[in-house]
Specification:
Layout: H1 3-21, H2 23-26, H3 40-51, H4 53-66, E1 67-68, H5 70-95, H6 104-111, H7 117-154, H8 162-182, H9 190-212, H10 218-223, E2 226-227, H11 233-240, H12 242-246, H13 253-256, H14 264-293, H15 297-301, H16 306-315, H17 318-352, H18 359-362, H19 373-392, H20 394-421, H21 439-459, H22 476-498
Antiparallel strand pairs: 1-2
Helix pairs in contact: 3-9, 3-14, 3-17, 4-5, 4-14, 5-14, 5-21, 6-7, 6-20, 7-8, 7-17, 7-19, 7-20, 7-22, 8-17, 8-19, 9-14, 9-17, 16-17, 17-19, 19-20, 20-21, 20-22
Length: 510
């Protein structure tokens, strides 16, 4: 071994030692251990509270069933589990070495060639941030729709209007903002309550529906493909696959709270993988029970909250179905709460890296509240603006929240592409890291993540049905264009001369 090789090995060993001591310290990031108040169970609970896979399926079940019948939903969940297990494993490897609030955009900055690391990581960071804003808007409007579905059912002359949803939406946004600002730091265990509640509700709903529903045939559930979209079968399945994929929206949540975790290099990877497994078991079990319980599919598609109608069909009881819906609404409140917390830490990380206008404020942690106050305010402000878009055009709003999955998978694929470009070598993936995949499995997981990004970017932008009309058009491409314009404007006006993502020059990057 020549002198150069010795120096490279020494740099690798030094870098690996820094991982064991806490990579955030080498990056100059959050090292105040008083802020690390999330233990292993809470991190798993928080991660699952965000994804809440069976609740995500419940809120969008009719969409998938309309695009191919139960076959799209059930086999789509299996496919989504395989794909997002690969995504989680890819992120877990990197998080076990680089546990920072920036998550995937910090991974991109570290892995990219020095010449391009600023632009690539900036793009990844803005894509991830907008995906979290869209997810927050989606969860908040879902809460409003659930709340107003109850009086709409019991009072036939009441028809919720867009401004009704808007007011409830903004009230939920404001209430949980105040909770995150002043109460959440004192009650980190609230995520544990949400986790237990959602699992208990899953068992209660699933068992009750199986006990009282008039079962559809297994042939209908497992083999019947009913496309109402006008697309060929393959395209119908892939466009409908967005519903199963949505059950993993926000899977990167633990990445952005790594600096609040007591042992991030071990806990964050476990939380990622646990979320994928628990999500699959609950979502698949719930979906099977619901597909066997469907009595009249067409009646579900004509309602604002199809799962509420399905529960009335399955149980034959308005009281039981209303109880389930109210409980599910409480679960979604936990989702919104966790999303606000996580999104604010991602925005805070971008501000700390000087990537946003007014970064001198956004990138600060409040000294007494010990929360990223400006990150929370920016996130709540963006969700407020999204609510105004809903009031002006529900189509534009739906396109925005539908962009969640596309933006998210693109932000995951970027560090995977760069990791493969680096050849998954030991100078970027030290052999003795806390979470390690065999090389063949690591390559496979990274490639699956990249392939999934290509598929989702293409097919999740397709119109929902043929022939295409203004109401059926998928405006996600337009939303992505607007996001690109806003990100570009922020780059030109601010980040181009100020943003500089983290680098590990000591690891031999060029």
């Amino acid at each position: 071994m020549n002198r150069t090789d010795h120096k490279k090995l020494e740099r690798t060993n030094t870098a690996h030692d820094s991982v064991n001591l806490g990579v955030t310290e080498q990056l100059g990031l959050q090292t105040n251990h008083e802020l690390r108040d999330l233990g292993p169970f809470t991190m798993v609970a928080l991660s699952f509270d965000i994804c809440n896979s069976w609740a995500a399926i419940a809120s969008t079940l009719a969409v998938a069933v309309n695009a191919g019948g139960p076959v799209t939903l059930l086999y789509g969940i299996i496919l989504a589990f395989v794909v997002y297990a690969a995504v989680a494993a890819s992120l877990a490897e990197l998080a076990s070495i680089y546990p920072t609030a920036g998550g995937q955009y910090h991974f991109t900055s570290i892995l990219a060639p020095k010449r391009f690391h600023r632009s690539l990581s900036y793009a990844c960071g803005l894509i991830a941030a907008f995906s979290w804003t869209a997810l927050g808007a989606a969860a908040t409007i879902l809460s409003a729709q659930m709340l107003l579905s109850v009086p709409a059912y019991y009072y036939a002359d009441y028809v919720p209007l867009p401004w009704h949803y808007f007011l409830v939406y903004q009230a939920i946004n404001a209430a949980l903002l105040l909770y995150n600002l002043f109460v959440l730091r004192l009650t980190p265990w609230v995520h544990n309550i949400g986790f237990v509640l959602t699992l208990l509700l899953f068992l209660a709903v699933t068992i009750t529906c199986l006990a009282f529903a008039d079962f559809r045939s297994s042939e209908y559930v497992w083999t019947t493909f009913e496309s109402q979209t006008g697309w060929p079968a393959g395209v119908t399945f892939l466009t409908g696959w967005s519903t199963p994929c949505f059950m993993y929206a926000g899977i990167d949540g633990t990445l952005h709270l790594a600096e609040k975790c007591t042992d991030p290099i071990r806990v964050v990877p476990r939380a990622l993988l646990s979320t994928v497994l628990i999500g699959f078991l609950t979502a698949f079990g719930f979906a099977i029970a619901m597909c066997y319980s469907i009595d009249d599919l067409s009646s579900l598609l004509d309602t604002t909250m199809p799962i509420y109608a399905l529960w009335r069909q399955a149980t034959g009881s308005a009281t039981a179905s209303t109880t389930f819906l109210v409980a599910l609404m409480l679960v979604v409140f936990f989702v919104v709460n966790a999303v606000q917390q996580t999104a604010s830490h991602l925005i805070w990380a971008l501000g700390r890296d000087n990537g946003l206008l007014f970064s001198n404020r956004i990138g600060t942690m409040h000294p007494t509240l010990r929360v990223p106050v400006w990150g929370l305010l920016v996130n709540a402000g963006l969700i407020f603006i999204a609510g105004c878009i809903y009031l002006a055009s529900t189509q534009a709003f739906n396109a925005f929240i539908n962009s969640t999955i596309v933006l998210q998978i693109v932000s995951f694929a970027m560090p995977c592409v760069l990791l493969l470009w680096q050849g998954r070598k030991e100078h970027v993936l030290p052999r003795e890291r806390a979470f390690r995949l065999p090389q063949w499995l690591g390559w496979t997981a990274n490639l699956v993540t990249i392939a999934a990004a290509v598929v989702e970017v293409v097919f999740f932008d397709f119109p929902t049905s043929l022939p295409v009309t203004g109401s059926d058009m998928n405006y996600t491409c337009g939303v992505l264009g607007v996001i690109a314009i806003l990100s570009g404007a922020n780059w030109v006006c601010h980040a181009r001369t100020r943003y500089d993502g983290p680098r590990f020059e000591s690891m031999g990057f060029t």
